[in-house]
Amino acid sequence: MSNPQVHQFTKDKNHPWDRLKTEQYIQFFIDRNFVSLDCFHGAIIEKSSNKLIGLAGLNPYKENEPEIEWKLGVTYWNKGYATEIGKEIISEAFKTTNITGIYGMAEPENIASRRVLQKIGMKYLGINEFRDQKDAFYYIGRLGL
Ligand SMILES: CC(C)(COP(=O)(O)OP(=O)(O)OC[C@H]1O[C@@H](n2cnc3c(N)ncnc32)[C@H](O)[C@@H]1OP(=O)(O)O)[C@@H](O)C(=O)NCCC(=O)NCCS
């Protein structure tokens, strides 16, 4: 999270994280002790190396319709990991919670993120306002619609 490249298409684009912010972030989610998948952040562990390589989760957005998010270390990009975990989050969240749909937002220039949102079966809805900027919106409903 200290690498500015990770944040180049996110709201933290000029603010790479320092150690303190990273520790506070991890502590926040440990304290929340999530027991449900409708809103959570988790670590991404690479199975082959057993290394912590990023985070993924569902952020609150609309009622029963959270927003999916991922951030991976740069050396782990383009190995299909975000696609693998995104599909799994969608499947498990629909199986184990009452959410009705999941949104995905990406800066229009964030080609990798938009490609992943497409690959995990989300439908493109167009450009809309999100957190004071224009983002490309994607969505998948419980029945895959
Ligand atoms: C977005 C992100 C999570 C994607 O993770 P990833 O594990 O690399 O994604 P995948 O490997 O599953 O898929 C990436 C896809 O984007 C494509 N891609 C990546 N960069 C691209 C580019 N510059 N132009 C065109 N396609 C590109 C890859 O080829 C791949 O598609 P393909 O399978 O059809 O070839 C990762 O790049 C990341 O952490 N970025 C920084 C944080 C971020 O922007 N997060 C998203 C918003 S919160």
From TrEMBL:
<dbReference type="InterPro" id="IPR051531">
    <property type="entry name" value="N-acetyltransferase"/>
</dbReference>
<dbReference type="GO" id="GO:0016747">
    <property type="term" value="F:acyltransferase activity, transferring groups other than amino-acyl groups"/>
</dbReference>
<protein>
    <recommendedName>
        <fullName>N-acetyltransferase domain-containing protein</fullName>
    </recommendedName>
</protein>
<dbReference type="InterPro" id="IPR016181">
    <property type="entry name" value="Acyl_CoA_acyltransferase"/>
</dbReference>
<feature type="domain" description="N-acetyltransferase">
    <location>
        <begin position="1"/>
        <end position="144"/>
    </location>
</feature>
<dbReference type="InterPro" id="IPR000182">
    <property type="entry name" value="GNAT_dom"/>
</dbReference>
<dbReference type="Pfam" id="PF13302">
    <property type="entry name" value="Acetyltransf_3"/>
</dbReference>
